[in-house]
Amino acid sequence: MVVTVTEKRLDAKIAVSFKDEMATLINAGETTVVLDLSNVGFVDSSGLGAIVTSLKLIGRKGDLLVAGVKDDVMTMFTLTRMDRVFQMFSTTEDALNSLIAK
Amino acid sequence: MALLHLSGEATFDTVRLVGMAIRAVCASVASGTEAAQIELAVVEASNNIVEHAYRAVQGDITLDVDIGEKKIVIALHDTGETMPTASQQSANLDFDPMNLDDLPEGGMGLFLMTSIMDERSYVSANGRNTLTLTKFLHGGDND
Asked: Which of A22, A25, A74, B46 is the 20 to 30 Å CA partner of B64?
């Protein structure tokens, strides 16, 4: 399923509610998630941590793919080397296609 | 040289405004990428103040921003609890990307600050804590 973050900033203010919403989805059985960050212009370590928590919650049951990361936000992933943890795609379409190909 | 003074209640809403303001003024002398990185470093520092400096009490966060052609110096002040020297956070971020259990879910703020900024100092005096972050700018004829 594609989860599109509509907030422009995935930061400390909303990290907890983001985590909770993701947990609700994942616990309901959505274990293959494409996280669409194309609307997001800023991610801090709280936001990134919340994404990691979601990935851990999915665990071996599925996967969390990240799509649409803007250049400035990409810096966050590369600085922390989280770009080696998550499969990252330019668009949700690319992410979904990669799942079909499997 | 231009000096900007920002002040507000130490809340995540204030941090958002601070971040956006910092990014905008930094973009006037630095590249867009540098400005975004400085915003991130300042937001991380500000988040620490919101989360750790004031627990049961309210308090303010104030920033002095010195924008120069060769460097940007940002001082963050609070009158709350002092950050412990042996901080819970490490300046290192080592983990095995292949090991799910090993992935950090938090505590990355200090690492980001030290990766992005060139200098960092922290002093506590007379009930006031000051974190000073400096970024040397590149580009133009300054190199």
From this structure: A74
